[in-house]
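Annotated sample (chain length 235).
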Amino acid sequence: MSLNRSARTTNPDEDEQFYTDVNSPPTPPIIEPRTTSSEGNAAALGVQTHKTCQHQSEHCLKTIAIPHDLVAIFSQVAASNTEHNIETCGILSGTTNNDVLKITHLLIPTQSGSANSCSAEREEDMVSYQTCRDLITLGWIHTHPSQTAFLSSVDLHTQLAYQLLMPEAIAIVYSPTYEETGFYHLTTHDGLNYLKKCHQTGFHPHQMEPPLFETTKHTKIDRDTNITLVDLRCQ
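Output written by the structure step:
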């Protein structure tokens, strides 16, 4: 598993039109989900518990409950890097109960970065932390320090890895400069199928239409839960 984020290979001024900005997230640790038999957690979360079908022919996705303070906490963690135009990335970890996937932990891996890249290190620390606590990977989050919120070509390929591991996995992009946050998911037909067949690496153009990713339809904000921050850089 590599968490290295590739360097820019295209003209910076042309990247955004091809979804090819310089941000790419870490590949998810391979930790299998464990289904619990506990009841009533969905109701306690105050979120919808039915499975959400984005299209009749698509499989149904479980609802992901996102703590209300997740992005705010992440923005604080990333603040120092943001001031220096350096990316920050994190892993969204949590639990599964019936039809609800609940994000409970934000893991910040040891990492090095620049305006165009971010590389996570000591990946085994993330795997160990999650395994010992029966946590699963539900997605990732990263900053676009000076650009808008969207998924670059490299982001799309990384998100493919997340969704192949966990169909519900999401990508959150936080843009402090433009004060916007995107919650994204690859489209099942166009996104997943197209990217499975694309074997290019680095930053490269993808089709614009039909879109390869979209705003999530299976996420809900959990107003009653606070995120647990685990900064592995400090350990």
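Annotation: Confidence is low (pLDDT under 50) at residues 1-52, 54-58.
Annotation: The longest helix spans residues 70-83.
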